[in-house]
Amino acid sequence: MTPDDDDLVQLSALQHWLVCPRQCALIHLEGQWEDNRLTAEGNVLHDVVDRHGAATRGEVRRVTGLLLQSRRLGLSGRADAVEFRPSPDGAGEIPFPVEHKRGRPKAGDWDRVQLCAQGLCLEEMLGVPVPEGALFYAQTRRREVVPFDPELRRRTEEVARGVAAMMRSGRTPPPPDQPLPACRGCSLRDLCLPESGLDRSVEQWLRRRLAES
Do 136 and 213 sit in the same domain of this protein? Predict the structure, then answer.
């Protein structure tokens, strides 16, 4: 049984889930969001690539803001950019997704999983192999080519199933007993762990909760 459009999980949820399942639930299950400096920088970075458009340079056709979907994995979203490169045999094009990120490459695999999910969506939509993609980091101004090998594909499908199960359960995971390293830069910290912030942050959190009730 394939999910309806309304039940499809956003591609970005995979990254959020790998960083913190509670963060993922707050955003994608409860609809909570707060911007901070880091998310604002990311918004600026995506302003251009999120707009749908197309351009050709040499033999490469580049499409930005391309809508993606995989009913098999229950995913949907938008690719920052997809480059369509001529196949070696000249019989068609090979899609090459490019995801733009602020900052620099990370030790964890959450960016690679999100990118691989885009590749899996393209394979299902277009019926052609998508062997690799790239992550472009604003701070280093360089691309990191990511092969979609069997291990990354397995990991990506595993994460997609985990997020889908959480969404079906309708339950937000509890906060950690102590703030984690990822909590430091999280824009949802005051919503998730109000007692760990400054008094002013706690007051703002309480005011929001009172207003909602």
Answer: no
Phi, psi of 197 (to 5 degrees): -95, -170
Distance between CA atoms of 117 and 19, rounded to whole angstroms? 16
CB-facing half-sphere around the CA of 60: CA atoms within 13 A: 10
CA distance 207 to 185: 23
Nearest residue to 115 (alpha-carbon basis) of 130, 99, 100, 101: 99
Asked if the model's pLDDT at residue 200 lies above 50, the reply is no
**184 shares its domain with 161:** no
205 and 137 in a single domain? The answer is no
Binned at pLDDT 50, 70 and 90, residue 13 comes out as very high
Q: Are residues 158 and 67 part of one domain?
A: yes
Query: What is the rounded CA–CA span in Å between residue 62 and residue 134?
Result: 13
Asked whether 80 and 100 are in contact (CB, 8 A), the reply is: yes
Please state, in angstroms and rounded to a whole number, the distance separating the CA atoms of residues 193 and 109: 25
In terms of domains, do 118 and 203 share one?
A: no
User: What is the mean pLDDT of the segment spanning 86-91?
Assistant: 86
Domain containing residue 195: 175-213
Do 186 and 90 reside in the same domain of the chain?
no
Integer angstrom CA distances of residue 92 from 87, 128, 199: 6, 9, 60
Number of domains in the chain: 2
